[in-house]
């Protein structure tokens, strides 16, 4: 190699070394910034981040520190499962804030089980169900409170009217007693005066005039008393008549309120979009299931879920999603017979209780699934094909209804994991 070529090689190597050093400095800056973010967001890794930061800044010659930091980071990561921390934090907050509401017990239990399994999709579903039930109960409570407040206010007004009437009657009674006493005293005075004049006057004509004058005075007092009492009596009768009319109006209001409350309770267990029974109605049906099973009758619980429903909402809009929900609900309702139950559990989920064994229920569910598979819903100019998945679980007299539901729900998840548009029976 000539001297010129040798110098050129050295220059190229120096340039390459400078480039690598520049790149290394840039990588260090990026790494240090990234470590600062990690330390702020994951406190459990703070020690490891500190050591790694110092190692990067000091640039030790050996590489043993990499092995030590690798082990330290692995330990720290194992000790700090952020998903677990998040799930436990959410569960603790929710349970602390909603404890004491018995109608949320089932949802809180489901959330706790999902948290124990670190099942993030199920945690999301459980939280959605939890707050949907809370929302429904709050809406119903607010509606009934407004109705009752209105009628209680009306009752209070009527009671004030009655109190006023009784007070006026009492006052009128006192006035009447005072007027009678005054009338008696005045008549007694007139009679005493007349007796005195009869004794003092000897002239017959004068005596006649005095007697007549005295009697006229008595008649006038009696007439005035009578007119006053008649006027007050008529006023009292009119007041009582108006009070009775108000009482009849209040009774009509109470009957109307009772009808509205009964309608509100009926609406409270009915899904407004699909017309099916809602989650609250399902909870009631589930609570009554043990009584039916005690007689040895079979029953199967089914949880349905429309496949890829979120995609339909996101791509074609919620109005198209609503059309799908209504169409599927109609097929589900047509697919049962008395005394079976079907309801919308929430979102795109539906529930069924078929009062027959799991084999017959499977056949019935398969027929429903096929009908939904054949369903075409128009979203503008697009024809949407809809499919549905289901999980089945048999119920026996020894079964806990909520556990049966959870089992069917788990079977539904298996159906989705296996490709959707299918039915899975829970493992016995």
How does this model look, in words?
By secondary structure, the protein is an alpha+beta fold. It folds into 3 domains: 78 residues; 119 residues; 147 residues, Reverse transcriptase/Diguanylate cyclase domain (Alpha-Beta Plaits, 2-Layer Sandwich). Helices cover 74% and strands 9% of the residues. The protein has 12 helices and 7 strands. It has a 5-stranded mixed beta sheet, with helices on both faces. Helix 5 packs antiparallel against helix 6 and helix 6 packs antiparallel against helix 7. It starts with a helix and ends with a strand. The relative contact order is 0.06.
Shape estimate: elongated
Broad CATH class of the largest domain: Alpha Beta
The number of helical elements comes to 12
Whole-number average pLDDT?
A: 76
Strand content: 5-15%
The strand order across the widest sheet is 2-3-1-6-7
What is the level-2 CATH architecture name of the largest domain? 2-Layer Sandwich
CATH topology of the largest domain: Alpha-Beta Plaits
Structural class: alpha+beta
Query: What are the low-pLDDT stretches, counting only 5+ consecutive residues below 50?
Result: none
Sketch the major β-sheet: 5 strands, mixed
Spell out the helices and strands N to C.
HHHHHHHHEHHEEHEEEHE
Radius of gyration: 44 Å
Distance between the termini: 83 Å
Superfamily at the CATH H level of the largest domain?
Answer: Reverse transcriptase/Diguanylate cyclase domain
Range of helix content:
over 70%
């Amino acid at each position: 190699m000539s001297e010129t070529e040798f110098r050129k090689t050295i220059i190229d190597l120096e340039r390459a070394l400078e480039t690598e050093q520049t790149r290394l400095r840039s990588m260090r800056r990026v790494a240090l910034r990234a470590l600062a973010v990690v330390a702020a967001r994951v406190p459990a890794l703070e020690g490891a981040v500190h050591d790694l930061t110092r190692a990067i800044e000091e640039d030790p010659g050996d590489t043993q520190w990499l092995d030590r930091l690798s082990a330290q980071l692995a330990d720290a990561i194992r000790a700090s499962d952020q998903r677990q921390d998040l799930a436990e934090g959410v569960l603790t907050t929710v349970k602390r804030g909603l404890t004491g509401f018995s109608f949320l017990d089932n949802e809180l239990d489901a959330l706790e089980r999902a948290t124990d399994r670190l099942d993030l999709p199920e945690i999301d579903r459980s939280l959605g169900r939890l707050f949907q039930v809370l929302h429904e109960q709050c809406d119903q409570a607010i509606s009934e409170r407004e109705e009752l407040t209105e009628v209680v206010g009306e009752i209070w007004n009527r009671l004030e009217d009655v109190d006023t009437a009784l007070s006026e009657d009492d006052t009128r009674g006192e006035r009447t007693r005072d007027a009678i006493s005054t009338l008696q005293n005045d008549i007694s005075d007139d009679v005493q005066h007349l007796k005195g004049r009869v004794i003092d006057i000897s002239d017959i004509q004068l005596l006649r005039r005095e007697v007549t004058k005295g009697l006229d005075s008595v008649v006038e007092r009696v007439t005035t008393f009578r007119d006053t009492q008649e006027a007050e009596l008529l006023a009292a009768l009119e007041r009582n008549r108006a009070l009775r009319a108000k009482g009849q109006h209040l009774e009509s209001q109470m009957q109307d309120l009772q009808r509205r409350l009964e309608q509100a309770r009926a609406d409270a267990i009915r899904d407004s979009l699909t017309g099916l029974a809602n989650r609250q109605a399902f909870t009631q049906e589930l609570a009554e299931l043990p009584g039916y099973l005690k007689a040895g009758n079979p029953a199967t619980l089914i949880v349905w879920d429309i496949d890829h429903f979120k995609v339909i909402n996101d791509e074609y809009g919620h109005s198209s999603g609503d059309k799908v929900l209504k169409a599927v609900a109609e097929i589900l309702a047509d697919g049962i017979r008395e005394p079976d139950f079907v309801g919308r559990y929430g979102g795109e989920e539906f529930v069924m209780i078929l009062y027959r064994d799991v084999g017959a229920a499977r056949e019935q569910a398969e027929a429903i699934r096929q009908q939904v598979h054949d369903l075409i819903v128009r979203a503008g100019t697009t024809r949407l094909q809809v499919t549905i998945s289901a999980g089945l679980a048999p119920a026996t007299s020894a079964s806990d209804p909520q556990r049966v539901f959870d089992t069917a729900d788990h079977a539904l998840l298996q159906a989705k994991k296996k490709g959707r548009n299918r039915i899975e029976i829970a493992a016995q």
